Amino acid sequence: MTEKTPHPAAIDDAVFLGRAVERLSVLIAEQSKSVFDTMGIVIPVRSCSLMTVLATLGTASASDLARELGHSHQLVMQKIPKLLRLGLIQHRNDDNDARRRIFMPTDEGLSQLAKFGQCTVLIRAAYAGLFAEVGDVRQFVDRAADALHAKPLDKRIDSPG
């Protein structure tokens, strides 16, 4: 059980579900970073899905990546500079639209993705053990998101009056 420090406000209530999910996300990212460091993976933990999608597509604009990832264009654009600095991706101007940049993985980016691919086997096994212990968190999160898409939170609230 995770040790909790008492909070002056009741922020461990179900009302703060997003906070709890974010705490889990941060913990997973921190612990994944440790695994990545051990395995020589320099891809930022929160950019692995972007790198995977980009490698699958071969080349893509930020809009293409955002659409494939189900993220905002802004979030994708926040990740791009670090991936460029690390030499994991490169870009060129779009021949048809000078304002648009086309991104592609570098050889180093593909090499890093191969290391990440080896790491996913280990992470998947670790999650299998975790899920045996606590239940399949991934399925639970997906079901909760699907249910909220089908019936948003505002429709679940009985408005006073």
UniProtKB/TrEMBL annotation:
This is MarR family winged helix-turn-helix transcriptional regulator. Signal peptide: none annotated. The lineage of its organism: Bacteria, Pseudomonadati, Pseudomonadota, Betaproteobacteria, Burkholderiales. Coiled coil: none annotated. It comes from Janthinobacterium kumbetense. Residues 51-100 form the HTH marR-type domain.
